[in-house]
Amino acid sequence: MKRSLILASLALLCCIFPTEAKKKATEPAPVPEKKIVVIPVETENTQLILHANVYGSLRTVHYGQKITDVEQFTNFYLHTSGKRYGSALLTYPTVGGVNVGTTEALHVKYANGDHNTELFYAGHKQTQKANVTVTEVCLRDTITDLQIKLVYEAYAKEDVIVCHSEITNGGKKAVELINYASSALQLKANKYLLTHFHGSWAEEMTVENELLGRDVKVIETRIGASATKYNNPAFMISLDTEEFSENKGEVIAGALAWSGNFKLAFEKDYRGDLNIVSGINPHASTYQLKAGESFVTPDMIYTFSCKGAGQASRNLHSWGRNYGIYGGGKINPTLLNSWEGAYFNFTTSTLTGMIDNAAAMGLEMFVLDDGWFGNGKYARNDDHAGLGDWELNTEKLPEGIDYIANYAHEKGLKFGIWIEPEMVNPNSNLANQHPDWVIQSPGRENYQSRQQWILDLSNPAVQDFVFGVFDRTMQLSDKIDYIKWDCNRMIHSFGSTYLKDQDRLYIEYVQGFYKVLQRIRAKYPDTLIQCCSSGGSRVEYGQLAYFNEVWTSDNSDALSRVKIQYGTSLIYPPFIMGAHVSAVPNHQTKLVTPLKFRFDVACAGRLGLELQPKDFTEKERVLVDRCIASYEKYRDLIFQGDLYRLVSPYEDSERYALMYVSADKSRAVVFAYSLGYHHGEKTFKIRLDGLDGARKYKVEELNVDKSCWKGSGASYTGDFLMYSGILPVQEYTYDSAVFYLEAE
Ligand code: DGJ
User: Fold this and answer.
1) N or C: which end of the chain has fewer CB atoms below 10 A?
2) Neighbouring-strand partners of residue 216
3) Which residues contact 706 (CB under 8 A, 6 or more apart)?
4) 337 lines ligand 1 (CB under 6 A)
5) 534 alpha carbon – ligand 1 mean position (Å)
6) How far is the CA of 506 from the centre of ligand 1 (A)?
7) Residue 227, Cα to own-chain centre: how many angstroms?
């Protein structure tokens, strides 16, 4: 199913529906022939029920486990069926009418200055194609010609429902969209435990759990680009509990697919009901919708689990693998990235030396990071110059990129290269030639961040340029297999010399980004592309429709990575996480961690190395080669298997354990880490999960001569491993182990 994008089109998308709610008097009587309508949106195990009463008020009356006879909802929801408005929250709450005090999904200002919109059900249709059922529900305002289509795509096997709204101005005059959320979801429980993700550079996806009180909790970003730096547009809600649980209880997870400003509002109202409104952040983004135009909001992705957060994550991971992530399900190569090993200081021989080592270690790709472009006074020899001037630095690399790419291919490696096409250093030819392409507020200081400015992607000329950067880089050699696309700053002093309406900038920046990516994917469907943004500042499902993976964090310290990778895995599949072994003392945290611990942490994602490999001692190389070789044995489980988090690094135990299990439950890999000193408490009992209780599995510890668990090498039933568990010795900080399981 193609993912929705924002479009402004002249099509009147709601014409397919009957028009009985249109242009009625202000105080209508119930329409006698009208009936209560129950609309089930179903997956294999879950169900979202929409309910329109006789007056056409649409409510979401259930999101949870599947109920066989949905007609029962007709009677159950009687208390809303006798009134036009009822008191319960509406599915897509608007500003206007009796909807006061509720966080709205839609706020429209009409040409006559009126701010009131009242939406009523006007028809629906459902279509099914293989695994996906699409439900479209049409709502109309009582007196204006505003039409809303709520679209729900239900992915049966994944238990995921993706929804968005389409807002059409069917009138003759332009209207202003002041707020235009993708979705609102209403829930009824006694307690709501919100799990959300905040952070900053080098500490992305920090997990926070908080019990929602009677108020509105808002999670948002207004920074425009690098939008997930401080908050991620995703959450989990655990119902009727104060404790986050991997395996128990009802959990709803949600994630917005949008690479710009977002807003998630969680309103617990006076009844105790929860109204979750998610979408583009309306901050400085009032959208003029001309007569006949439609606005399509980004996708909001939901899943429901009655088996705790673990199943909710697995549902999202499966959906990502099958639908949401470009190239999902394919196995991406292991790699050596030049950044922390060479930074800007390299020549061709530095790189070919790294390639030799990468090949000898059994890696599959070499990635040349920042520093290969810009010439003369704008040579990119540090981060003060060169961004925007995407010509080969002929002084540094006189042999050219083609030579290096060929060298890699001859050694059996793929080749990748870094670009940051949305950016420009003031010290560059591009900044001199196209000052108007820079996002800026005329007359004000144009703030720099990392000595760079950001280009105005709302401008089609800039879109052409950014596409051209990618395209021309790909022409440097026909051996380029992978592009690392970086984005190292947010938007300050927002303003566009191109746009007439400045309110459009935050939105059209993202639309411009997607337009470029669509062109790239049309021309380069097989190129692997990593989305990097100072590490993980652009980790969300909007960009993942085009990118194969992310650079999870610039923090490559294994101890920090435990929490970053754990947090990311709650919403995003681990196979997208670039996870690199780097040198010690770590360049970000200065921590010195054992090489084995660094490998065991990186091997739980897409393994890479980011250091100068010639610095390894001979003894270290034995371990390095061994860990890379053994990764081959189980990495399909990371890309295609199911993740079970066994012990959380946020618990007091100072331990972390996780495992991946193949879909047929015949193979698994377990990772266990000690994150602190355990005061003589030698063993760490880990109960496994996701196995077939009746089958016997041979358990073998990898990458060691002598296992830390006496039981390694023998076979055990799945029920023993799950209900009793394994007992490795993990007493000291940074003790770690990887166990491989194969059914007999
Ligand atoms: C920031 C990225 O996150 C790093 O991995 C590296 O690519 C640098 N940019 C290069 O400037």
Assistant:
1) C
2) 267
3) none
4) no
5) 6
6) 24
7) 11
Contact 661, 646 (CB under 8 A): no
Ligand 1 pocket mutation, candidates 200, 488, 530, criterion most atoms within 8 A of CB: 488
Closest CA to 293 of 5, 6, 12, 4: 12
Regions in the chain scoring below 50 on pLDDT: 1-32, 81-82
Report the SS3 class of residue 294: strand
Closest residue CA from atom 9 of ligand 1: 534
Å from CA of 604 to ligand 1 middle = 22
User: Residue 551: in which H helix or E strand, if any?
Assistant: strand 549-551
Give me ligand 1 centre to Cα 383, in Å: 10
| Beta-carbon-side half-sphere exposure of residue 16 (alpha carbons within 13 Å) | 10
Q: How far apart are CA 321 and CA 317, in angstroms?
A: 6
Catalytic residue among 486, 557, 642, 735: 486
Structure tokens at 250: 């009802």
What b/e sequence results for 454-463 when a residue is b if at least 16 CB atoms lie within 10 Å of its CB, and e otherwise? bbbbbbeebb
Give the three-class secondary structure for 378. helix
Q: What is the largest CA-CA distance in the chain?
A: 85
- Predicted pLDDT at 34: 66
Bridging pattern class, strands 414-419 and 423-424: unpaired
The answer to whether residues 269 and 89 touch, using CB atoms and an 8 Å cutoff, is yes
Using one digit for the tens of pLDDT, what is the confidence trace for 183-192? 999 999 999 9
- The pLDDT assigned to 9 comes to 37
Q: What was the pLDDT predicted at 6?
A: 40
Is residue 512 helix, strand or coil?
helix
Predicted confidence at residue 15, as pLDDT, reads 38
Q: Which long-range contacts (CB under 8 A, 24 or more apart) does 395-401 make?
A: 396/346, 396/347, 396/348, 396/371, 396/372, 397/347, 397/348, 397/351, 397/372, 398/348, 399/348, 400/476, 400/477, 401/368, 401/372, 401/476, 401/477, 401/480
Cα–Cα distance, 57 to 667 (Å, whole number):
51
Is the Cβ atom of 42 under 6 angstroms away from ligand 1?
no
| Pair 151, 17: CB distance under 8 Å | no
Supply the residue whose CA is at minimum distance from atom 2 of ligand 1: 534
141 tagged catalytic: no
User: From the CB of 201, is ligand 1 less than 6 Å away?
Assistant: no
CA terminus-to-terminus distance, the chain: 38
Annotated active-site residue 69? The verdict is no
State both tokens at 41: 């949106």
Closest CA to 264 of 272, 252, 276, 273: 276
Residue 514 φ/ψ, nearest 5 degrees: -65, -40
Question: Which atom of ligand 1 is closest in space to residue 534's alpha carbon?
Answer: 3
Q: 554 in ligand 1 pocket by Cβ < 6 Å?
A: yes
State the DSSP string of 300-318. Answer: EEEEEESBHHHHHHHHHHH
Residue 744 is predicted with a pLDDT of 97
Helix pair angle (505-523, 460-475), 10° resolution: 30
Q: From the CA of 744, how far away is ligand 1's center (Å)?
A: 45
Instruction: Give the tens place of pLDDT for each residue, 110-121.
Output: 999 999 999 999
Look-up of token digits 């200055």? 113
Is residue 437 within 8 A of residue 465, CB to CB? The reply is yes
Q: Choose the residue to mutate in 228, 418, 485 for probing ligand 1, maximizing ligand atoms within 8 Å of C-beta.
A: 418
Ligand 1 in contact with 204 (CB < 6 A)? no
Ligand 1 atom with the smallest distance to the CA of 484 is 7
Best of 340, 369, 382, 609 for a ligand 1 pocket test (most atoms within 8 Å of beta carbon): 369
Residues 6+ apart with CB under 8 A from 594: 734, 736
